[in-house]
Amino acid sequence: MGISDKEDEQVAAEEYDPTLIARLESPERLEKLPPEKLLDLLELSGHEDLLDVGAGSGYFTFPAAARTSGTVYALDTHPQMLDMLKTRSEERGVTNIRLIEGTAEQIPLEKESVDVMILSLVLHIAEPHEQGLKEVQRVLKKGGKALCVEWAYPDSEPPSDHRISSSDMARMGEELGLKVLSRQPWSDKYYSIVFQK
Fold first, then answer.
1. Residue 7 above 50 pLDDT?
2. Are 82 and 15 in contact (CB under 8 A)?
3. Residues whose CB is less than 8 angstroms from the CB of residue 23 and which lie 6 or more positions away in sequence, other chains included
């Protein structure tokens, strides 16, 4: 799961912080943005190859890995986060997660590589925002689905110039040939959109 700009800078600046998982997976965040309920929106069959962009601590990676026999690619820009994910995967005995270093704007996977993508709190960081959705269009297989979660607009953190309203997100996806399957708020802080290629 992506993290706020402030936490993002902190991860880049420091070695592993034992309190990071507690912050990223706080009870408040789990209540307002429940990963299991969000994954339900994808209606997984249990065999999909899946890409979690901005995997962070594994907020969506681990629940997704439990729902598919396919490969779950966990992509993050920070080697520290990937190291943490590797350790947590080994501790949990999860064997279908593959770690990848990269960005939402340049995903290091071939065209039409995965059945499902998760982009949680990362598209507002992409420069330009459309580039992240262009990568969704490129990397998803035909008929594949992408779950995009973003900050509600206009909330105060991160700053409003880093926000994408749900209507703008839907429009950008549709302009790239993606179909909106669902669009809904999650508490007062977040919203989700499920696109299909």
1. no
2. no
3. 7
Residue 91 DSSP one-character state: H
Stated pTM of the model = 0.85
Task: Count helices and strands (H / E) in the chain.
Answer: 8, 7
**Is 195 in contact with 179 (CB distance < 8 Å)?**
yes
Cα–Cα nearest to 80, from 157, 8, 163: 8
Closest CA to 77 of 47, 99, 92, 98: 99
The span from the CA of 156 to the CA of 154, in Å, is 7
Grade residue 197 by pLDDT with cuts at 50, 70 and 90: very high
β-partners of residue 120 are 149
User: Residue 182's closest CA among 38, 55, 34?
Assistant: 38
Compare 158 and 180 and report the one with higher pLDDT. 180
Distance, in Å, from the CA atom of 132 to the CA atom of 62, rounded to the nearest integer, reads 23
